[in-house]
Amino acid sequence: MKSFLLSFVLCLICTLSIAQKRFPLRAQHTPNGIPCTVELNNGNILSFVKVKGSPQSKKSTYTMVCMNPQLQEIWARKIKFPKGESWTNWSFTNDGVNVFTTVYDLEEHETKLLRYFYETNEGHWVKTDTLNQRKVGEWKEVFGKAKQFQTFQNAIASVSSASYLVPLEYQYKVTFSPNNQKTLVYHYIYSEEKLYAHGIVYDDSMKKESEGKIFQDANYVNYPFLLNNRGDIILNKVTNSGKVGLVQYNLVTKDERYLSFAASNSKRANLSVKMINDDEGYLITLNKKEGRYTGITCAKFDFRKTGDTERTFNLFDVEYKNKIRAAQKKQGLRVDYEWYNYKMLGVDTNDLGDLVVVTEQQLISGERYQYTDDIHEKIEDWVGYRASKIKTATVLVWVLDKELKVKHRYFVAKKQEANTVDGLNTISTSFAVIKNQLHLAYVVSPNEIMYNEIHYISIDKNGQELSNEVIENPMKLVLMRTASLWTKEGDWLWVGRKGLLGRKSFIQRKKYVSKN
Questions:
Q1: Residue 168 main-chain phi, psi, to 5 deg
Q2: In 3D, which of 114, 115, 106, 111 has the Cα closest to residue 134?
Q3: What's the whole-model pTM score?
Q4: Beta strands of 221-261 (E only): which ranges?
Q5: I need a labelling partner for 52 at 20 to 30 A (CA). Which of 64, 117, 209, 413 fits?
Q6: Burial class (CB in 10 A: 0-12, 13-18, 19+), 276
């Protein structure tokens, strides 16, 4: 019996302990927010990180590492890109990994998108393809011309070093279908009278399926494209008055299905679309009045149906605002109590069909730069580094039932700040919805100097906390947000760096509690 109890205690200690090992990451500047650590279908962990390179470097060095679930290294490969080539995105197949890079030449006004393919058994390079190449014309400004909404990550990029990041008009965007069997590559043509995107859809073997122009309607601000499993492109856009339009478009047949959502009483800012199959999904928009966060509007839509789509407005009420203010004041946080600069951090669904919407206060402050909620991408904003700070604050989570009514809400009162060079790498919130639980991780500083107090929270389907703890961090590591990963087997993996400019980093593993 004693032996059994001893074994049980040792097993429990192992379950709760934190595994730690050195990690190749030394310096990572990826303000586009691409996850640099992912779980493969076989349970192994694959990471792709920048380990060397600066704006003046002739080459940048990346390391791709494959580890088993116990964080034991299976293989590692160093990859070097010349100056003017930047990691854009990556995707995975049963056979290997695709690494997409953008190569831009400012003197020749050319840009192209490359695809490197590596097999994942030993990490060997297989081949390199040029997916698209084009000349970049001079930016043309026309009154009423359609615009692109500027993501917070691109806003950060626009105030960073222009020689380090891909300039706005040279950028390629790469996105994937939910089942990862299709890939959409597109780029905007800013040099014509009307704004349009040139898009290409590839199958799972990266064979071209379709290609064509995707025109953007005048007087609309357009959000990033989505791709469904069938190969249709989902466009979402909004007017200055808050009228929202969703379009399902096929590059082969040119078939187009259009859904319109009337403007709301308060101006919509920051919208998100969550597809649940090829035709159905949710439209979620933050509502703001005079820039202040007033609530969220949600609608469930079906491209196969026409007519009005029911929408539900959920108020960010005064009582709940006061509750958050009280928590902020109790922690001594000096934050904006007027609810400006809130953004959609992410949207997901749990196994019950509930919609989980995570919002966060995010802003950029600097002497010569002012970030606003409704900013769109403009060439004059893309001027290179200016002394600015990236700031994030309180997180507000909405959980809505199938009727899109509030089931429960949850907030995290916090305050974080970093310079623009580091972007959102070491601040902001990382979250995941796994089965019926919400997992949150964020980092704050107890002394306003170094951000090294890492918090972990898990919340059940009823909004009750399962855990709320400060993670052991004796080495004072800084959480790398894009390297935070919750695996299928119940592990939370995160990478911590020694200080904001530290050159040593460690990957951690912690078991999280899983309850239905």
A1: -55, -50
A2: 111
A3: 0.91
A4: 221-222, 226-227, 233-238, 244-249, 256-261
A5: 117
A6: middle
